[in-house]
Give the backbone structure.
Amino acid sequence: MDKAAVTTVQDLVQPTIRATNVNIYYDDTHAIKDVNLDIPPKAVTALIGPSGCGKSTFLRSINRMNDTIPSCRMTGQITLYGDDIYDKKIDVVQLRARVGMVFQKPNPFPKSIYDNVAYGPRIHGLANSDADLDNIVFNSLQKSGLWDEVKDRLDTPGTALSGGQRQRLCIARTIAINPEVILMDEPCSALDPIATAIIEELITELKERFTIVIVTHSMQQAARVSQKTAFFHLGKILEFGDTSEIFTNPKVEKTKDYITGRYG
Amino acid sequence: MTDITPNNSHNIPSGTVPDFIPPHRTEKQIKQRLKKRYRKERIFKAVGLGGLISGLLALTVMVTSILTTGLSGFTESRLTIDVYMDPEIIGSLEGYSTEDRIDHLRQVNHRALIRNSLRIKFPEVKSRRDIFALQKLVSSGSRDEVRQKLMKSDDVIGTTIPMDLLASSTVDMYLKGQISRDVDQSERKISDKQLAWLDIMASEGRIIKGFNWKFLSSGDSREPELAGIWGAAMGSFLTLLVTLAIAFPIGVSSALYLEEFAPRNKWTDLIEININNLAAVPSIIFGLLGLAIFLNVFNMPRSAPLVGGMTLALMTLPTIIISARAAIRAVPPSIRDAAIGMGASKIQTQFHHVLPLSMPGIMTGTIIGMAQALGETAPLLMIGMVAFIVDVPEGVMDAATALPVQIFLWADSPERGFMEKTSAAIIVLLIFLVLMNSLAIWMRHKFEKRW
């Protein structure tokens, strides 16, 4: 009863991202097939599925990172708060300021920690003064839980940090431009368990402010951090629903096989 | 595990597990095999080491041969002669204004001053021929030295002052041991009489050896003892400046465009193949191109570093483009993703991240291309930078020659004195090359320290 009530409320809320009949092709390969997905606001949506099922491709289509791949074609519609993001009127640079991304491999710029975080605000002109910029950097590092660790060495290169710190720096860099959505492409796959736990905790905190879509290979991670889960298989979404529902009572046999580790 | 079927292309009967047992090897066999393996390794190492050693040997021989012939090119010989500033030859200065005086002193017969001073030193020399031979001991450039002394102050008129006058190239060669006095005088350029005079001067301590500053500071000359490398060095410097100014921006932007912006199709493939082929085109072809286009079509000045630089830029472009493309390709794609994911535009991604990160590689490629251009002779011959030019060029439009061309010119000269000048110029060229390569390494480190 309770659960059903929650679902109804969430269904009433306009989704942040709505994908309708999305098909993505790489040359002749049909990578994403007729995907329909509503991603709710201020929550974590996990995309799970075996390798090569297209979840990263789908994730990258949300901030049009696939535009950089010449062979990639897309049909269908993806909207962000009702705006068609593939519309000609949409400026892709502006879109990426609204939809930030954290990658699988921590990839801070080979610049100082400060410059890493300040880069986004600088190119988007978000700070009116140096003090403003300092403030944004401080806030972003604080929110990503990195401030106490790096406050004395903001001028040291971001690449000199440890793996987990680097990934948090990338998160700080992303939230510095105050996006509406943060996409995370297996953010913990290159990290040790402790660093992973810290990032997961951070994700849980961040969902209060941001809509988060995360691709992960770890079932436990999906179960721990997400509220909604979509199971991708061979380019299709086989099942989408509340995480608790999917992990306890999957409706599709394939999902069950996958989350119990019998397949994938 | 159940549905594994043996691959029948290997002739394994289906359904059965092949009972293949590896043949037993005795300890002796194993040892022999091992021995063979180690022998192969030793042979490979020995061949590699041999190649390295023979390369080093060749290098040592080359450097030693250049140094032994070339180092003496940096020294010169001088003869201390008591120069009598004969008022009769200089003439009266009465009634002249200061400017006229200097003008007059410039035009004095300095040659006669030196000749008379030598005759005072060796009064027994009487015949015209001998006086001429005596005079031949000092270089024709010593006239300038006397002239300068005289122009500096006319107080010296009427006095005798000891001056270290530049010895002629023949005397210099003899003093450096390159002319043997054992052979008959008909077979050497220095006569017995001249040798006798030199012996007298040597016994009086009038022969001085010193560093040849003129070699580093003056332009070319017909006289080996007066010839210098500075004109050619300046010409090379100006030429390279033009080359760099043209080839670097065009090369780097072409590389950036081809690597990051151009679509991959058969046109870009064609361009890529052509760029790679251009790097292998003989340099003289570029010289012909420069001659045909810059000189004949655009009527640009002949022998000028501007045209030389433009021609060498054509030659250097492929090198820069290829190395810049490699450097740009070496920038990890994750950095591009990061920048694009942050909402940087394509051009921002390139200029904020890709270019700075690939700069060390681009710099190295550029400097190697420049070093190549510095050593290039053939294209410069085609556009007339091979002329005999005495003046040091002051701009890119002045007629000039370049270091390797100067070496070529001197190597071609019949005078014996130019032999050591050739080697000395090679030393200077090599020093420049080493300096440029050191600069490349230094720059790379400096840029890499900025991560």
Summary: Chain B has two domains: 80-211, 230-449. The radius of gyration of chain B is 34 Å. The mean pLDDT of chain B is 88. Chain B has 18 helices and three strands.
